[in-house]
Amino acid sequence: MGNRVLITGLNVISSLGLDLQSNWDNLLMGKSGVKRITLFDPSAIQTKIAAQVPDSFEEYAEGKIKKRIARQMTRVSRMCYVCAQEAIIKSGINFENLDRSRVAVILGIVNTGNSSVEKDTDAKNRIIKGMNNAMSAWISIEYGLTGPSFTVSTACASSGYAIGIGYDMIKNGQADVVIAGGADSIINPEEISGFNELFALSVENNPPEKASKPFSKNRDGFVIGEGAGIMILESEAFAKARNAKVYGELAGYAFTNEGYNIMAPKKDGEGMAQTMELAIKNSGIDKSEVGYINAHGTSTTLNDKFETMAIKSVFGNRAYQIPVSSNKSMIGHTVGAAGVIEGAFTILSIIHGKLPPTINLDEPDPELDLDYVPNVLREKSINAAISNSFAFGGHNVTLVFKKY
Q1: pLDDT at residue 2 above 80?
Q2: CATH topology of domain 254-402
Q3: How many CB atoms lie under 10 A from the CB of residue 302?
Q4: Is 80 a catalytic residue?
């Protein structure tokens, strides 16, 4: 059980770019990826904005996926597949030289994006396009991997759960390498209308880039984002043996369920606090080592209030000294992919000593008085950080990352 879990590959596709570096550069600049929806005509629905992946994605993906296979994938599956390819290249792993039964693929997937906006779905590909397990299967098939390959679905915490399960598989000796992450897109009229009925989405359509404003007084709901993220996890022994580049260490995590409400978090952030407490305890670090919190920070009334209360509950007076920021202010809420995408940005924050801002924090909520890194990036050397994902259904996860 003593084997440390290291991150040796990372990649992100989001509204801010098609690779890790462009995402990181745009995030640090405080650039918003939110714009008017172009995947379909949104004029008949209340919310007309989202954080879409750049239009150049399909052209980018064309050279990376065989045509026959691409036709059997949804746009979301293609995002996941090419994101994984690039993460594997970055990791420098050569699967020819290792036991492929010791490589697992675990993805957090809420759905495959086979909605009304998906193009070219017909009787020949409908079943395969709709399979939740297809994304993990395609990656295993591409590299001939014969270790465990599956998906986990816990709403907005899905890819965070995938990373936690991957950590356990390495810790308990079931795998040497885990390809973990997820992908998602719910930018379609039926799901946006559904979230509008729940009063969960922002309806501030103009200007789009100002709509996602976590921790602000005038926040009015989250903005849907889309994308994919992949994290390559390896045991320390395996990574050292192949002289791998190491981005950082996954020191631990916690899963909890609030057992309370299908939509709302427990009062005063009690469940969120429990998750953070347990994650820090499981990771073996001291609370005093946490130098940054990548918040779930959805821009909804209850999440931002209760997450703030939870941070204060866990860290006491020190909460005011810990920078907290929300990537969702720029990339929207990427749902099943949020845990891995925001986890990747947390790792980069540790590596570079730069904390992404929470943009659009122009009118602070007087009730929310932590240091949310408003509008401009912050340079700060940190050794450990946590990343939160709190989902509908009460599925909570906190990931703990450390400098290696």
Answers
A1: no
A2: Peroxisomal Thiolase; Chain A, domain 1 (3.40.47)
A3: 14
A4: no
